[in-house]
């Protein structure tokens, strides 16, 4: 049973008709007193709670009722109903334990999806599965490993994939966030629709609207033709917003509105377009700290992380390192036409001792570089050591310890530090690094680092 708590009889009636049509049994309550009269007789599966009653618009009464419901039974999922102008109030409700919020006027399909999602997520978690059992139940191509931490992640992937829950994937750079996002899509009901990847760190604030929402011809000087945005390309499918922590505050507002209203206007157009997408975000930054610092909107944070998946680092699952190395070598056998390639048992054990701060990406680069530079089919410790070490001069003793970073990762870190120091001014960064602006632009594009487009 779904309990609708709203003092407006028209809203209760409208929601009741919608939910009954969707197959739910429904009861209504017009006040906190009626709400607890219902709760004493039957515990609902889910509560839709309006935050304002009668002429009171501060939300105080609704928040007080939410707290009472949480004290009565903290396991009942609550979806808050509020107006766009009361988003801050809804965010406060999320802190108090609400599971989601919708704004008026709501989208019927989105509301029903949200209810189904929360009901699915409140079902008891299945017992832990082995890797073989997970592979039999789900499509987990290219995700390698048997560590319990990884298996917990894959279990969560399989559990949330059939829902439309927004997922936030966190973890250090190189831990495989994109692969997890793809796995969620491939195991969802949207798997036959597009999976659109967007690196938000590589899109400047001036191009954000055009890239994500498209533009019409003549919207700006270089808009010679209409352009379809990434959200529209992902219609009925999944959009993966990588590096969401890199978005500036003005772009965050625009993204939040699309996630809330499920509609947008292409740049230069006055016609709204409706879009149905499942949103998966990823970041290697601490969004909670950014919220506290005021650099990431709290309302957007609560909108994108109904489910959070934190990926373990490679150093937390060292037994998976040989499995990953073998996986990369098997792929390279075909690419470089060397069918005899293999990893020696000694090298397999040795790889587990490497710190690998760049995680899976660094391991992949290390293996491929060793394959390219070694003339032997069997790769031993010496082959790897020869290709990841070099003579250390006195002048280089302040650099990171040999083997802890690849050259590519050192370059990436140095560019990021220079960009932060010079406040994203490309000309200054290029001079400080001793390269041309054109060479810096190539590297910025390569690493997906945002830059100030006014400094060109």
UniProtKB/TrEMBL annotation:
SUPFAM superfamilies in the cross-refs: CheY-like, Homeodomain-like, P-loop containing nucleoside triphosphate hydrolases
Domain Response regulatory: 1-119
Pfam families named among the record's database cross-references: AAA_lid_14, HTH_8, Response_reg, Sigma54_activat
Keywords: ATP-binding, Nucleotide-binding, Phosphoprotein, Transcription, Transcription regulation
Gene Ontology BP, a term: regulation of DNA-templated transcription
In-chain residues carrying the UniProt-annotated modification 4-aspartylphosphate: 50
Domain Sigma-54 factor interaction positions: 143-372
Keyword Nucleotide-binding tagged: yes
Domain of life assignment: Bacteria
One Gene Ontology molecular-function label: ATP binding
PANTHER family on file: C4-DICARBOXYLATE TRANSPORT TRANSCRIPTIONAL REGULATORY PROTEIN DCTD (PTHR32071:SF57), TRANSCRIPTIONAL REGULATORY PROTEIN (PTHR32071)
Protein name (database record): Response regulator
């Amino acid at each position: 049973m779904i309990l609708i708590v709203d003092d407006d009889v028209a809203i209760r009636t409208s929601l009741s008709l919608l939910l009954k049509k969707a197959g739910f049994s429904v009861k209504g309550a017009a006040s906190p007193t009626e709400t607890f009269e219902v709760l004493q007789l039957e515990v609902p599966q889910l509560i839709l709670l309006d935050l304002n009653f009668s002429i009171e618009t501060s939300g105080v009464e609704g928040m007080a009722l939410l707290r009472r419901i949480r004290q009565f039974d903290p396991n009942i999922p609550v979806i808050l109903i509020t107006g766009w102008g009361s988003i801050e109030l809804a965010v406060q409700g999320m802190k108090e334990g609400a599971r989601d919020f919708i704004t008026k006027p709501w989208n019927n399909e989105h509301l029903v999806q949200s209810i189904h999602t929360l009901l699915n997520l409140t079902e008891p978690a299945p017992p832990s599965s082995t890797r073989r059992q997970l592979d039999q139940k789900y499509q987990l191509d290219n995700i390698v490993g048997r560590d319990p931490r990884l298996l917990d992640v894959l279990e969560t992937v399989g559990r949330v994939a059939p829902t439309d829950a927004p997922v936030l994937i966190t973890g250090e750079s190189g831990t495989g966030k994109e692969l997890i996002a793809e796995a969620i899509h491939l195991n969802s009901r949207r798997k036959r629709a597009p999976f659109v990847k967007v690196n938000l760190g590589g899109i400047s604030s001036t191009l954000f609207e055009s890239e994500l929402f498209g533009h019409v011809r003549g919207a700006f000087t270089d808009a010679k033709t209409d352009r379809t945005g990434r959200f529209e390309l992902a219609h009925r499918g999944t959009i993966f917003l990588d590096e969401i922590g890199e978005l500036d505050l003005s772009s965050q507002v625009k993204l939040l509105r699309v996630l809330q209203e499920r509609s947008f206007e292409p740049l230069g157009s006055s016609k709204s377009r409706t879009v149905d997408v499942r949103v998966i975000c990823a970041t290697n930054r601490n969004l909670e700290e950014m919220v506290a610092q005021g650099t990431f909107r709290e309302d957007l944070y609560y909108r994108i992380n109904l489910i959070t998946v934190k990926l373990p680092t490679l150093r937390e699952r060292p037994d998976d390192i040989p499995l990953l190395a073998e996986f990369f070598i098997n792929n390279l056998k075909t690419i470089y036409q060397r069918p005899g390639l293999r990893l020696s048992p000694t090298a397999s054990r040795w790889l587990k001792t490497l710190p690998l701060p760049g995680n899976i990406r660094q391991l992949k680069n290390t293996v491929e570089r060793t394959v390219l530079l070694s003339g032997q089919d069997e790769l031993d410790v010496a082959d790897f050591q020869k290709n990841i070490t070099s003579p250390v001069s006195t002048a280089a003793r302040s650099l990171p310890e040999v083997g802890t970073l690849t050259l590519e990762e050192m370059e990436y870190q140095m560019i990021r530090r220079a960009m932060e120091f010079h406040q994203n001014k490309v000309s200054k960064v290029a001079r400080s690094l001793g390269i041309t602006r054109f060479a810096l632009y190539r590297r910025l594009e390569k690493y997906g680092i945002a830059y100030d487009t006014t400094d060109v």
